[in-house]
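Task card 7
Instruction: Convert sequence to structure tokens.
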Amino acid sequence: MSKKGFTIIEVLVSLIILSIIAIISSNILQSSLDTQRSSAKHLNNIKELNLSSSILRRDIRQIVNITSRDFFGTRLKGTFISNKNSKAIVFNTTIKSLSNDVSPIKRVEYIVEDNFLLRRQFFSSNPYDQDGYVQSTMLKDVDELDFTFMYENKWHSSWPINPATSRKIPTLIKVKFLMNNKNYTWLIEPNITYANQD
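Output:
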């Protein structure tokens, strides 16, 4: 009677074939996991951009063109403010409150700090406490953010641009920024045509 079994060569060939199959399978699995992570990150970035854009548009479209004061009670130079190269805008907007006893008009500031686009909502339109706000992080990894403002068919890098515009809101607001090595531009129309008649 002859005994049948595997030779060493057959066992080695089988191990090599199994190793090749395992390597190919692990590479395919790693590739699909990397693709899934990349897709999830891209989708999350799109959600952040859409949410941030919606909140900023809402705040600007509900803008209230009223005279504001600084934290010491001094009248500010405009109803909508963005100093040149400041990477910030400040204005008053209508935000619903839980209580009818509280004014719905609140000061809002959008500012870039440490590559974060932040939204600060103060508790009133003329706050006296510089730290009296609620802060939200709108976007991360923001570079080269610029606000520009259209008035009489020209773009301006700050607002107000003169005493006449200190009581007005820009016709259009352009927000340009770089995030994750991609350029983005948002155009927002405030939908407010009147000047402050304070």
